[in-house]
Design goal:
Oligomer: heterodimer
Radius of gyration of chain A: 24 Å
Largest interface: A-B, 97 and 93 residues
Strand content of chain A: 5-15%
Shape of chain B: elongated
CATH class of the largest domain in chain A: Alpha Beta
Structural class of chain B: alpha/beta
Largest sheet of chain B: 5 strands, mixed
Structural class of chain A: alpha/beta
CATH topology of the largest domain in chain B: Uracil-DNA Glycosylase, subunit E
Distance between the termini of chain A: 39 Å
Strand order of the largest sheet of chain A: 3-4-5-6-7-8
Keywords (chain A): Iron, Iron-sulfur, Metal-binding, S-adenosyl-L-methionine
InterPro entries (chain A): Aldolase_TIM (IPR013785), DNA_rSAM_put (IPR023874), Endo/Exo/Phosphatase_dom_1 (IPR051675), rSAM (IPR007197), rSAM_sf (IPR058240), RuvA_2-like (IPR010994)
GO molecular function (chain A): catalytic activity; iron-sulfur cluster binding; metal ion binding
Shape of chain A: globular
CATH superfamily of the largest domain in chain A: Aldolase class I
CATH superfamily of the largest domain in chain B: Uracil-DNA glycosylase-like domain
Organism (chain A): Brevundimonas mediterranea
CATH architecture of the largest domain in chain A: Alpha-Beta Barrel
Number of strands of chain A: 10
Protein name (chain A): Putative DNA modification/repair radical SAM protein
């Protein structure tokens, strides 16, 4: 009977947690259970143990400790004014579920968040207690991601960093004004201060060369945040500026973008419609360009009309179509940074090109074997036996390289 | 045609020995054949039976022996786990070509190399998917609790992947059964056994019901993306994943659930909320136009300040720090990266220079009120860093509201401005710092001011001699300030 109750709770508290897009279990310190009393390992690369039909992976058991909440954030299914069914786990129930799932190889670990009950401090204490029990009582060495309650005492944040691989505090709304309006009890300044503390903690835990004794670990998987897309009026360029500012300021590993999704029992202040999935996808691509391709947010903005990324083409292609004078690029000579700007060439393809051209002069066919689709790359490169001629400047180039319609990702 | 016999489908060592012998004998790839012993009831005579070959040993090196790059050996080790029938031939062809093209493994655009690498990637992916998709079920035997999984890997990766499970589940007794063979860990030793069948694994596990509940609940019906799911979790794996049975039902219901959510009008907020929370909602924010009556009000006001847009990308406003009746006030330009994070002025590299110089000049920092002309950090993000940008006259003017309040409340005997921006905030004009430094200046409210360089300027000077000269002059200015306040 008690078991049935637990399943019901799991159902409510997993449903309540699913609007947080983060699921990563990568990038933490390497460790395993050899020589330990418990189970668990992390080996650098994250593992996605299952995928649901929404295309999102299940890497961690992502649940809330409770969905009772004293805050009333309009976009949130768990806001105080919602009529959604409420539940609360005991600390031990979360610990048992995590270990039971982990032993069966369903998950990489736990991602625990919570509605705010009583106070920020109390809530954070409970989250830390779960992580502490897993680590200290069960010697659990799998992945733990804890949500930060930004209002909580810095001492609790410090403890959280001791037990967790990753910490995150969600900014949620790209516009501060919107946050003030839609989440009146949240304060963006408090969230940023919590992120500051995490960055300073991570930096302090990085051992200096001459340190004989290593400082204690602090959130070795770093921190992340989430921005909801389409709930406030922020255009893409504003969102990307916000991301760039967060990456630069707090050393975030990831900014997650979450298309605002209809929720049961929704608030009347927000538009209800299908989530803008393609827009979300383009923002992720733009985010990648900033992190791995040397693009700045303003550069990506140059290819965005009215502040919005083109839904029909990816942001790198949009940028290149605007900057045709910089093309074609010679794959046999161009520096790596320039190759990274060629539409259709990913980081891996570029690295392969740079490595192979030390031994062979590349033909178009060779490039074709190093990348996924040579059709998209062709107008922007020259190779030993290939020059695009007038193709680079063709008026209908955009149409030619986008044979696939942007509708392919639409919902139904 | 020369034929080599390998002990098993994954007999890398056997292939390596045979391939070397064939290569040394000059047998061209088209004339070489590799078969696995026992497969297809093969019998008859073989040119290079695996049992006849001595394993590698260092002292019998043939003068014809040749070396291959370590990368090739690693590549071959992976490719041989691929299920394709011609994998041994492909790798032999590459080996054959390596003698004339020693860099071949690096030419990843080559047809054979690209093919081999693609297969190695598939093998590696298959191993990764095994780490992801093995599902243990709990069972009990004479020795107690044990964990058993039935799994069908895309390629022959059981032995390669088993050590991962050993490292992860060191304290559990487990077995992974597959059609290729099985792996067992008894908490001390990892061993491998013969192929198994599905019925040798437990048929159920009571926790699976919870797992399915979780799977169904974490799915968001409003964002159906079946292709993405199938790309990452190919259908071939579904039959051994308990949760996959839910996919058709969840998919079918998603449209109806989404439409219902979109169509349902927003309900009335719940009653408990209206009683308990709603009235606390719109708490008053400090009014930025009210003239602050003490330093605590300055602090609160700066945190709420929207007089210029710099607050947006900064973490927090950084107010001055020091005794409220300090005789010396030092004004810097603006907080930097470290100050922005810590919420305190002059705690970063420039702060260290200032502290050292103050000490040398005989000034105790705890007696000084230290602040900045602009209270928020103006910067530009560059990857994982923030580059300092100089605040413009508009931002300096907007922020004078706070600096003026601090001056009015602290009433120092002397205000020392570090650098041109602080000078601008103090004098209302852009000063020539180097020319005007070190002299007492009368400020518009009748108080005394002085200019010197910003300590960050000392950090930027490239050569050591210029740096130490500038530092000496800086300390001199600080000493002059100390004399002025008596």
């Amino acid at each position: 009977m008690a078991r049935l109750d637990l399943r019901k709770k799991l159902s409510i508290l997993a449903d309540a947690a699913k609007y947080d897009a983060s699921c990563s279990s990568s990038g933490t310190s390497k460790r395993d259970s050899v020589g330990g009393k418990g189970i668990g390992s992390t080996e650098g690369m994250g593992i996605c143990h299952a995928y649901t039909p929404d295309g999102r992976c299940i890497s961690l058991l992502k649940i809330l400790l409770t969905n009772f909440c004293i805050y009333d954030c309009a976009y949130c299914i768990n806001r105080a004014s919602s009529n959604v069914e409420r539940a609360r786990f005991d600390v031990d129930e979360v610990v048992d579920l995590t270990l039971n799932f982990y032993r069966r190889n369903y998950i990489e670990g736990l991602f625990l968040s919570s509605g705010i009950i009583r106070s920020g401090d109390y809530t954070m204490e409970q989250l830390v207690l779960v992580a502490k029990t897993l680590r200290e009582v069960h010697d659990f060495r799998g992945y733990i991601h804890l949500k930060l309650i930004p209002e909580a005492d810095p001492k609790l944040v410090e403890m959280a960093g001791l037990y967790a691989d990753r910490l995150s505090a969600n900014i949620e709304l790209p516009r501060d004004e919107a946050l003030a309006r839609l989440a009146p009890q949240k304060d963006v300044a408090v969230i940023k201060k919590a992120m500051s503390q995490v960055r300073l903690g991570v930096e302090a835990a990085r051992p200096a060369k001459r340190d004989k004794i290593k400082p204690p670990k602090f959130a070795p998987g770093g921190q992340s945040t989430q921005l909801i897309i389409g709930a406030d009026g922020a255009p893409d360029t504003e969102i990307l500026d916000r991301s760039a500012s967060l990456y630069g300021g707090y050393g975030l590993r990831r900014v997650y973008y979450s298309a605002f999704s209809p929720i049961p029992d929704s608030s009347s202040v927000l538009p209800l419609s299908k989530p803008p999935l393609m827009r979300e996808h383009r923002l992720y691509q733009a985010d990648w360009l900033m992190r791995f391709y040397g693009f700045s947010a303003p550069e990506i903005g140059e290819g965005a009309a009215g502040g919005m990324l083109d839904l029909a083409v990816d942001p790198k292609l949009a940028w290149a179509l605007n900057k045709r004078a910089q093309f074609p690029v010679d794959v046999n000579r161009a520096p790596r940074e320039m190759l990274l700007r060629v539409p259709g060439l990913g980081v891996k393809a570029v690295d392969r090109i740079v490595s192979v051209r030390r031994y062979r002069t590349l033909r178009l066919e060779d490039v074709g074997r190093l990348t996924r689709s040579v059709a998209k790359v062709r107008p922007f490169i020259t190779a030993l036996d290939w020059t695009p001629g007038a193709l680079t400047d063709a008026a209908d180039l955009k149409a030619r390289v986008t044979s696939r319609s942007p509708e392919q990702l639409s919902l139904f | 045609m020369k034929t080599a016999v390998l002990a098993s489908e994954t007999d890398f060592d056997g292939w390596r020995v045979a391939a070397r012998a064939l290569r040394l004998a000059g047998v061209e790839p088209v004339a070489a054949r590799f078969v696995v012993a026992g497969a297809d009831g093969q019998g008859g005579l073989f040119d290079i039976p695996y049992s006849a070959h001595p394993r590698e040993s260092g002292d019998e090196r043939n003068r014809d022996e040749f070396t291959v790059p370590a990368a090739f050996v690693d590549l071959a080790r992976d490719v041989i786990l691929h299920r394709s029938a011609d994998r041994f031939d492909l790798m032999y062809r590459l080996l054959w070509r390596l003698r004339d093209e020693p860099d071949l493994t690096k030419v990843v655009s080559d047809r054979d190399v690209a093919d081999a690498m693609e297969r190695a990637r598939n093998v590696s992916r298959s191993s990764h998917k095994m780490k992801a998709f093995v599902r243990f079920r709990q069972t009990h035997d004479a020795h107690g609790e044990a964990w058993v999984a039935w799994f069908e890997p895309a390629h022959r990766v059981v032995e390669r992947t088993a050590p991962f499970f050993q490292r992860r589940f060191t304290t559990m007794r487990w077995s992974i059964l597959t059609p290729d063979g099985s792996a067992h860990w008894d908490t001390e030793t990892l061993s491998f056994g013969p192929p198994a069948t599905r019925d040798m694994a437990p048929a159920e596990d009571e926790i699976e019901a919870f797992w399915k509940t979780y799977y169904a609940s974490t799915f968001n019906p409003a964002r159906l993306k079946l292709k993405t799911m199938q790309g990452e979790m190919p259908k071939s794996y579904w039959k051994n994943l308990p949760e996959a049975a839910l996919i058709p039902g969840l998919t079918a219901a998603s449209q109806g659930r989404t439409e219902a959510m979109v169509a349902t009008p927003a309900p009335a907020p719940n009653a408990r909320f209206m009683r308990a929370v709603a009235r606390d909602l719109h708490a008053a924010r400090p009014d930025a136009e009210v003239v602050p009556a003490d330093l605590a009000e300055v602090e609160r006001g700066v945190q709420a300040c929207r007089r210029c847009p710099l607050y947006r990308d900064a973490t927090q406003g950084v107010c001055g720090e020091g005794p409220k009746a300090a005789r010396l006030m030092i004004v810097g330009e603006q907080p930097g990266d470290q100050e922005d994070l810590a919420g305190r002025p002059f705690v970063g590299p420039a702060g260290q220079v200032l502290d050292e110089a103050l000490e040398e000049a005989g000034v105790d920092r705890v007696d000084v009120y230290v602040t900045n002309a602009v209270k928020h950090f103006k910067h530009e993000p560059r990857g994982k860093r923030r580059l300092h940008r100089t605040p413009d006259a508009g931002e300096v003017t907007a922020c004078r509201w706070w600096l003026d309040a601090e001056r009015r409340l602290v009433q120092p005997k002397l205000v020392l401005a570090l650098g041109a921006t602080a000078g601008l905030a103090l004098l209302g004009r852009k000063p020539a710092v180097i020319r005007e430094r070190g002299q007492a200046l009368t400020l518009d409210d009748g108080s005394v001011g002085m200019l010197t360089v910003h300590p960050a300027y000392l950090l930027r000077l490239p050569d050591r001699a210029a740096q130490s000269e500038a530092r000496r002059a800086f300390v001199e200015d600080l000493s002059a300030a100390r004399h002025l306040i008596g």
